[in-house]
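Bench log. Compound arrived from synthesis this morning; before running ITC I wanted a structural hypothesis for how magnesium ion sits in the protein. Inputs:
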Amino acid sequence: PYPSRVRIIDVGPRDGLQNEKTPVPADIKIGLVQRLQDAGLQEIEVTSYVSPKWVPQMADNHAVMSGMARKAGVRYSVLTPNLKGWEAAVLDKPDEIVVFGAASEAFSQKNINCSIAESIERFAPVVDAALAAGVAVRGAMSCTVGCPYEGEIAPERVAYLAGLMRGIGVQRVDVADTIGVGTPLKVQRAIEATAQHFGIDDISGHFHDTYGQALSNTLAALELGVWNYQSSIAGLGGCPYAKGATGNVATEDLVYMLQGMGIETGIDLDALVDAGQYISDFLGRKPQSRVAVALLNK
Ligand code: HMG
Ligand code: MG
């Protein structure tokens, strides 16, 4: 018995574009957000409030957040690693903020320049401030199956991080396979570890597709009842601190699979393919999703 409906957060504007060498102007990002919401996406991860020295691609966070035309009912989320990020983000009125930690110590250091324990100390006041302001809080958990620096990650370490996130008041969490090394049974173990601290409705799957496993991993997560997923339009992206890792599963491919299974997403696949074409045209490449390629060759 699979879930009858799935909610997708398109993370393309953030996870996707944070890793692009070609500078993408704010108005193109705004155009992408517009096309995603027109296609029926109910959640969009728009940008991050991180150091522009670390991730210059997201330095235009304010321009994008203040320039986009919001659609009622759509939840717009942004990444905030610390109070400085939160203080800038709150002025731009996100619906949800995302604190992002890692199950691996080495990745925590490379990505956010602190240990797991220190990251939780930095997140705690951000979570408090967001909840007090009526802004929802999600926690992203990187490297829940594998780490580019430490190799395989045990489920116990995922449970440990999930417990810390729960302890500071994070409302829901993403089980992220940052470098796309996961396979279905390992992903299930990571989800079960997370489920020691969060209900299944508050767990989402965030699978990068480096080894071509993301849809299989999604199916494995669906079997456990997970019905929230992150994906990236046109399969854009990767993480600047995870060398060689490719983008998230393409939203087009995820929606195609879910529609074929009779699972409701509220998303119009043709409009989604157009959104993928729009950003791929700008970047000067063919759309990377399998669905877009299949439709082009038809
Ligand atoms: P730090 O150097 O330890 O921070 O960086 P600091 O507090 O010592 O400050 C150093 C400088 O950064 C100062 O500026 C601060 O003002 C500035 P300076 O005096 O040198 O000019 N600064 C900031 N500027 C803007 N916004 C901020 C901010 N904080 C400090 N919020 C920090 C710590 C976290 C800021 C840094 O390590 C950073 O920005 N890292 C980038 C992290 C990132 O964006 N990674 C990619 C996203 S995560 C991801 O992709 C994984 C995910 O998709 C899930 C998955 O797939 O695994 C979510
Ligand atoms: Mg990611």
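What the model suggests: The chain is about 40% helix and 15% strand. Residues 177 and 188 are 12 Å apart (CA to CA).
ITC booked for Thursday regardless.
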